[in-house]
Amino acid sequence: MAAQGLNGFYGSVFKRSTAAFALIRTADGRILMVRSGTGAWELPGGVVKGGEDPRSAARRGASEALGAGFDVGRLLVLDCVQGGDRQGGGQGDSIAFVFDGGTLVTSVTGFSGAGGEREARFVALGEGTEVFGSATAGLLAGAVEALDLGTVTELVDGKPARGEPILPPVSRRMMPPVDGYEGILGRQESRFAR
């Protein structure tokens, strides 16, 4: 009986997948989307391979679309997808990361590669879930929020984890106020001065 419990546990651990994507935009606010064949439009990226970290996987996906040497910036989104795989192939939980791919200056609206098997295009955010699909639309909304707020957006199943926007951290003093001192370098008159 104990062996079945361990098999169930380890089986659920290995069903989890990790994906990483790059949010690459144009100066006029369009987002780079890619697809293979007639598949769904997604952000550049994909499954994190064994021995690869999420940032490297996002960099690899962006480089496949835009050419070698492309890099990604800070983390924008962390999405925990419960009971489903973002790529549609499994039944376990998955985690998706979205990194900032920066802004490109281009007038190109679309292109194809790999003999026409892979397609890419810059899509306006207003085109919505008809183009993106609900999972990618959630990642995009979270990434745009993270860019606006200068923070990381945490999602669960493509929706904000807390149901409210995540505010940037509040600026805090390193030390609590000490009577008689105005800061680390300055001294103010003590109210107990004689």
From TrEMBL:
Nudix hydrolase domain ranges (all copies): 14-173
Keywords of this entry: Hydrolase
InterPro entries per record: NUDIX_hydrolase-like_dom_sf (IPR015797), NUDIX_hydrolase_dom (IPR000086)
Protein name per UniProt: NUDIX hydrolase
Molecular-function GO term, any one: hydrolase activity
Cytoplasm among keywords: no
Organism listed in the record: Arthrobacter sunyaminii
Keyword Hydrolase carried by entry: yes
